[in-house]
Design brief:
The chain is an alpha+beta fold. It is built from three helices and three strands. 13% of the residues are buried.
């Protein structure tokens, strides 16, 4: 806990407090990045995101399938739920890829970030218009 030092000017204390809070936020952002990389890429070390800002315009179809997401969330739910104070209830019957995305969105909201879903329309091979979900992470500085 950050406490004022005797005879410390208030502006110096506020600066130290702000720096400590930014350090916690930065650390939690790295935890989210670790969570995202382990979920999306598994044990593949050749591909991974170096920053949360690289998670842009990711199609839902390119994310891990429900069975992989369920197993990953079963292993990591309690750890990240406690770390980010999400107060979510554990129910592995409901774990899907959408649940992992929502879980990430809630974690991002704790560090001044967000995940946006956009629905776009694309023509497929048969010239039919198909709707696709696209996800992007946004972070405030």
């Amino acid at each position: 806990m950050i406490e004022p030092i005797e005879n410390e000017p208030i502006h110096a204390f506020m600066f130290r407090l702000k720096m400590a809070l930014n350090g916690v936020r930065y650390d939690k952002r790295n935890k989210i990045l670790d969570f995202l990389n382990a979920w999306k890429f598994g044990l593949t070390k050749s591909k991974y995101y170096k920053s949360l800002n690289e998670f842009k315009n990711i199609f839902y179809r390119d994310l891990p399938k429900d069975n992989i997401s369920k197993e990953y969330l079963k292993e990591n739910f309690e750890k990240y739920n406690d770390l980010f104070d999400l107060d979510l209830e554990y129910d592995e019957d409901l774990f899907t890829t959408y649940n992992v995305l929502y879980f990430i969105k809630l974690m991002l909201m704790k560090v001044d970030g967000n995940m946006k879903k956009e629905v776009i329309e694309i023509k497929n091979k048969n010239n039919k218009i198909v709707k696709r979900n696209v996800y992007t992470i946004f972070l405030k500085r």
